[in-house]
């Protein structure tokens, strides 16, 4: 089973009583995530944007702001990336959140996803290495006060980088052994 990865970006606003944000910007390089930079390719989420996606606060599944299946959140894909519109519940936590967004104390969105098998390409000729995600499943979007990549949030991607590097090393050793055998 693929493990959930989390990324964050700053792009959040209010329109009346709705929260509007762009949690994913296509073809935009991340910060250095500890040995690699990541880009989400155009259309990488495919049909998964039509799944039952939830809008959360700080990736907390107990703090649901909206949900596509309930019609309280919509996700639109355009050439820039994903754009969400959330109609939050009329509860104190949501009102407090909207006040924090209005004051610009909270200005970020994030997303949780899994990468499909063979859904990422690695370029180790660059420093740092480049990971381009071409096929993934969107699981959730979130409102966050920390709109930057966090070291704890890239653990899964770091394992992916290390596995790919080991795989490349093994392939190289096997090719060398084959050449020596010939």
Descriptive overview:
With 182 residues, the protein is an alpha+beta fold. The protein has 2 helices and 12 strands, in the order ββββββββαββββα. The strands form 3 sheets. It has a 5-stranded mixed β-sheet. A 4-stranded antiparallel β-sheet has the order 2-3-8-7. Strand 10 and strand 11 form a beta hairpin. The longest helix has 27 residues. The protein is elongated. About 6% of the residues have low confidence.
Could you give the topology of this structure?
Layout: E1 5-10, E2 12-15, E3 18-25, E4 36-40, E5 54-57, E6 60-67, E7 73-77, E8 81-86, H1 92-102, E9 108-115, E10 120-123, E11 129-133, E12 136-144, H2 155-181
Parallel strand pairs: 4-11, 5-12
Antiparallel strand pairs: 1-9, 2-3, 3-8, 5-6, 7-8, 9-12, 10-11
Low-confidence stretches: 148-158
| Number of distinct helices | 2
List the strand order in the largest sheet. 1-9-12-5-6
Helix-strand pattern, N to C? EEEEEEEEHEEEEH
Rounded radius of gyration (Å): 19 Å
Descriptive terms for the model:
182 residues; four-stranded antiparallel sheet; elongated; five-stranded mixed sheet; alpha+beta
